[in-house]
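Dock zinc ion; give full complex structure.
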Amino acid sequence: MARKNAIRTIISLECGECKKYQYHSEKNRRNTPDRVTLTKFCPSCRSRREFKEKR
Ligand SMILES: [Zn+2]
């Protein structure tokens, strides 16, 4: 078994427009210490929106 480290953490990405839809993803804390913003498809807005990391 590989040793599990705490560098990869699970994050929630919330739609910046409607704030109703969330994606769950994981990120590498060492590579991205700041909040991540991703452009993904939001089914609630029915278009591509910026998803921001929620804490
Ligand atoms: Zn949305």
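Observed: The two ends are 31 Å apart (CA to CA).
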